[in-house]
Every structure is written in structure tokens, then in C-alpha cells.
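Could you please consider the sequence and fold following this short note?
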Amino acid sequence: MKRVLINHLLEPANKISGISNYLFYLLDSLLKNKQYQFVLLTCWDECELPSMLQGRGLEVVTKPYIESMPKNLINQIFILPRILKEKKIDLEFNPDPVGCIFGKVPLINVTHDLYFDVAPQNYKLHHRLWWKIFFPLTLKRAIYNICVSKNTARDLIYYYPDVSEKVRVVHESACLNGPKVELKRKDYGIFVANVSPNKGVEVLVKAMSILKSMKIDVDIYHVGRDSNGYFELYAKKLNTTTIPIKLGYLSNEDLIKRYCEAKFLAFPSSYEGFGLPILEAQKYGLPVIASNIPVLREVAGNGAIFFERDDADKLVDSIIEIIKNTEKFNSLSLAAINNSCQFSWAKAADKTIELFNLALDMECNNA
């Protein structure tokens, strides 16, 4: 049986991040494949891993978490080759876009987005510097570079054309497993995101201000973090006090209830690598109102209304249509569910296993 090391060392210990969520749901499906034995190299304590991964033959190696990315990666240079040898690893899988730049086994890494290349102005110089050093080196070492969307693949090939032949698209899926809750839909929307400059906060605040001026009572609830106070910043800029109602982080159960009770998910981003909340919302029959950018069309499909990016008036029109037009809501709700069914972790795992097989065959042929 071939042995795969999953390098999870860049993600914080015992704390869910976007990449950890991606990995755990993918790993849940990967573990059903008996062709491979998986070894998880992580900063998580084994007992803190999700219950869906417990008692399934997953070997766990826990190391201390190093918060500084360059220090973490330099530490990997020293410890990873030894672990690869001790654990008799045949292939390394890295759910992060950057990882150890040295290793004697084939590497497959995952690129979720190209934020540092597409919008470098939003990030501090030293963060961009480490990205520019370590990301190209990781790409060079990898046999395959998995991208979670066609749009991310296009971005990767545009900024790093030398790796174009290594790029493969494997869509992710919703990271919620709970059953749908039968609740009466209410005339409000939700916005699920940790707020950053690409999330379209200004157009959302402007649209809410327009709705208020029209005396149309539609609340929007924010699920996530706004550490830099972007809502208040744009409200001040637009001379309004109307901003989303902040809920902070919700449990999976409470988030599912919101998806089952709201009338729409607002997703006005200017850039995304994938847009996972779209599939989460659609899984529970919640239509999406999204900015008209390629990646959101790729993910949301027919289960969404699209408006031109930064056009607050069109966003307002879309909100009114979905709130007032029951027939439109019902048709979009059904389309949303159907679209979400096109994505699954089982499909993602199957495609990932195919790449494992190809990488090992390639290594065998080159031996």
C-alpha cells in the first residue's frame, strides 16, 4: 500500500481555517480509498481533529505550530526529509499553496487563490515578499498543482506560465453536512465572509443605504469577522449609518438555520479563488446574488442572480426582485440546489486520487 504524507504544518493548531476545512472534508472522502495509507503531519492534537476523521486508520504526527510563515517553512526544510524517510512516504500532498521546497518524493500542492498576485496592494510588503520567494519554488517542486477553480487555474497560468502543464482543476464542495431545517423564509439576506478589500463591502453598504432611502426594510446579517472595521469605514464615506447586523462566527448548526431562513446570500466580491459560501447557501436552497465575475459564474451557475460589479443600483434591483417575487425565489432556490449537487467531496477525492496515481506512475517511469 502506497503511503501519502499530508503536510498541514502551515495551519494553526486546533483552530479551523479555510484550508483546514478544505483538507478535513477532502480527507473524509480520501480515507474511503483503500489504495493509500495517509499520514497527517499537523500541528493539531489528534484528539482535536474532527470526529469524521477519528478511528479510520489515519496516522497523525503532531508538531509545534510556528506562526511565522518563513520560519515555519525553513523548519520544514529541516524536519520534512527525515519524516519522509522514517514514515516510508511515497508521495507528499500539500493542501497549502506553499510548502517544503525540498523532498525526494513527488509533491502535489493546492492553490486556492492568487490574492498576492492579483491584488498585491492589499497586503504588507513582507507578506508579498515571502509569497514571491516560496510560492514559485513550491510550484517548481510539485509534479501537479491543483487549483480549486478554473478561474484560479487561469490566474496561476497567467502569473506563472512555466507551470501551465502541471495545472489541474479539482473543484471543492460545501463544508456543511447538517440536514436542512424547515423554517419559514424571512425577508433578510446574509453576507458570509471575513471582510477584506476584495469582498465588495462598499457596494453592499451603498445598496443597503439605497434600500433604506426607498423605505424598503431588508436587513442583511454578516457572518464572519470585520477586524479592520470596513463596514464603518465605508458607511462614513457614504454618509450613512446603515450597515449589516454583525453576528460574528456561528456554529455550523446556527449557520445552517440562517441559510434555511434567509431569502438570499449577498456575494458582491471583486475577486475570489472559489467562493465556498455560495455552495453552502445553495445546498440549503438559498439563492445567491453575486457580482458578475468569471469565478462566481463558474461556481454559482444558474442558482444565482448576477449584477455588474460595483453597481449598487443593480444589486438593489436584484434584492427587491428576490424578496418580492415568490416565483423567482422558488425557481432560483430549486436551481441553487441542483447546482450545488454538481459539486461533491467524493468527486474531488476521486480526481485527487487520479493525480496521486499519475504522479507515482510518472515517478516510477523516471526511476
User: Anything to note?
Assistant: Residues 345-366 form the longest helix (22 residues).
